[in-house]
Amino acid sequence: MQLKMYWFPGTPVFDGALPEGYSISRFAGRADVDAWLDCCRDGLVSDDAGAEEFAARILARPDIEPKRDIFFLDYHGEHIGTATCYVDSDEGAGDLHMVGIKKEFRGKGLAKYLTAAALHHVKDSGVPYVLLTTDEWRENAVRSYLKAGFKPVQYGLGMEDRWQAMLETLGIDSAEMVYDDATPYKTVCRSGLAKVYRFGVFGAGRGTEMMKYSRESSSCELVAVCDKNFALLEDREKDFPGVKLYTDFDEFLQEDMDFIVLANYANEHAPFAMRAMRAGKAVLSEVLPVQNMAEAVALVETVEQTGMVYGYVENCCYMPGPKKMRELYRAGKLGAFEYGEGEYMHNCEPIWHNITRGEPDHWRNTMSAFYYGTHSLGPLIHVAGLRPVSVMGFEGPYNARMRRMGALGGPFGVALVTLENGAVLKSLYGVGPSRSSLWYSVYGSKGRAETAREDAVHNGVEKLYANLDEHEGDNDNTVVEPDLNDDFSEKAAQSGHSGSDYLVMYHFVEKLRGNKYAEIIDVYEALDMFLPALFAYRSVLEGKPQQIPDLRDRAERDKWRADVACTDKAVAGAALQPSYSKGNADIPPETYEFIRNYPRDKQINGRDRAELGLSLPQTDEDERG
After folding, report:
1. Which of 88, 297, 380, 456 stands the most exposed, by the fewest C-beta atoms within 10 Å?
2. Between β-strands 337-345 and 184-189, what pairing exists: parallel, antiparallel or unpaired?
3. What are the tens digits of pLDDT across the range 355-403?
């Protein structure tokens, strides 16, 4: 994307006298076409063929009248520069276009005379602003436009960074930036004066991906890391020299930080998020947002009371396929949202020893089949932008794999969710299937978009198929593969989870900057993603559909303030739910000992188990406790 700039009527227009020998003239007719092409070719277009196409495209516009809208800068009667300024009939705004001066006349400060002539031409025409687009390499032109009163426009992600770099190059301290709807954005400073956001990470394992962002962005500085495992902290210090290390969260909170990334245990995010926000820190929370309704109410009210920014790291929403789905839907390409499916089936047996370390009470061992389900449902909610209102859950039968893993919940759960517009979502999630799948599909009134199946192509979320009608009812059935690359693809590709870890951090920092285009998942949307899973399991336990509370409604919150029911005995107390609806399995201590002692650098498989002489349950014939 090019840089975009706006000039607003009422801004003073340069009115100085031209240097001796120079004059301004207007397009006089056919005789001026070749001279105009010469100016464009020398000043704007790199080749003859490009110039011809350029001319045909511009002169064919019905809202451009050459004799009225095209200006020349002349030197002793020779056209040596040109500018076109007209009222764009589609946008209803002025458009300053094709400002170019022949190479031998550049660097003399002449562009301001052309620009002034063009602005005088439209300044009283009633347009709300005059726009232009340009490239970073045209440094002198950008400097001239800024001096003429043009303001940088924030019209897409990455623009603020680009303008910071441009101002640094030009040696200009700051400029007023506006949005593309012409409303004020902020004062943007050159790179050397711009604010750098200081952040800390709680959780030195998973949090490593977020730490890496500090190397990719000049807008962030990693200042502190907190974890109970000091050996892990020391490893991070080697990777990020100078970072401060903490094993105590309260001491960590005293550090001078703008925001904190929570990458600790998923069942503990809410309490630490609330402590951080009360200490004046913005929070970017990993999955999950909460684990029961009491925490959900408290989290919402903490966000509201403190006014701190809260973001949820449902990174599947930012993977290439789901991300493009959302763009297509929000652009109206899919029509009305009617149905969606999401799958996050992950055979975790090979890695279970690394993520539970043989701890019987680890949250992953005690969670229900639905507990961690925002990876399958979250992207669908994010695409639709609609609130879930009811859910029915179905639980897969406990299997030998879960027993071998030492996990008590069902291997997978299915949730059928109804949205506020009546559309239906199917969410399939599990850690105990025999094979993995990460897949999404969305149906609208104008067609379907779906990611590739994981068995069909490596990293299926990095390929999208779209079968869409231009108009509802066309029934075209032509399948295309939309280009999923954008201005961030190259940078994002260096980070984890198909680039989504980079984008999560980028959008969160943009939100802190005040950019309204920042795409974060706030606390309300985070709960829209999580509560269907929580109530899907309740529907399994109770055998009937469940209504999903809307915690945006203050009156609704009072019904749930004391509801601590979940599968975590440390917080549920007497309201403890079984991890599996039909009763928890009796897992022998030897299972956890095997997992605890299994080599961290290897993935668990049956051959290794046999070679080590270990015998663990392979079938599900034992009765459950």
Report:
1. 456
2. unpaired
3. 999 999 999 999 999 999 999 999 999 999 999 999 999 999 999 999 9
| Phi and psi, residue 519, nearest 5° | -105, 80
CB within 8 Å of 29: residues ≥ 6 apart: 67
Q: Which pLDDT score is estimated for 457?
A: 77
Final residue belonging to a domain, choices 149, 178, 207: 149
pLDDT band at 505; cut points 50, 70, 90: very high
Q: Is 606 inside any structural domain?
A: no
Give the structural domain span for 69: 3-149
Are the beta carbons of 398 and 620 closer than 8 angstroms? yes
Q: Looking at the structure, do residues 451 and 359 belong to the same domain, yes or no?
A: yes
User: Is residue 585 included in any domain, yes or no?
Assistant: no
pLDDT value for 492: 81
Element at 262 (helix H, strand E): strand 259-262
Could you report the per-residue pLDDT of 444-457, keeping only the tens digit for each?
999 999 999 988 77
User: From CA 334, how far away is CA 326, in angstroms rounded?
Assistant: 10
Structure tokens at 214: 């500090």
Domain count, the chain: 3
Statement to judge: residues 375 and 447 lie in one domain: yes
Q: Are residues 228 and 335 in the same domain?
A: no
Q: Do 308 and 325 reside in the same domain of the chain?
A: no
Strand order in the sheet with 282-285: 244-246, 220-226, 197-202, 259-262, 282-285, 310-312
Is the per-residue pLDDT at 465 higher than 90?
Answer: yes
Q: Is residue 588 part of a domain?
A: no
The string over 105-123, giving b where at least 16 C-beta atoms fall within 10 Å of a residue's C-beta and e elsewhere, is bbeeebbebbbbbbbebbb
Residue 294 contacts residue 267 (beta carbons within 8 Å):
no
- pLDDT tens digits, residue range 307-349? 999 999 999 999 999 999 999 999 999 999 999 999 999 999 9
Determine the residue type at 299.
Answer: L
Task: Give the separation between CA 249 and CA 622, rounded to whole angstroms.
Answer: 43
Sheet hosting strand 337-345, strand order edge to edge: 479-480, 464-468, 447-451, 437-444, 337-345, 424-430, 412-419, 388-395, 546-547
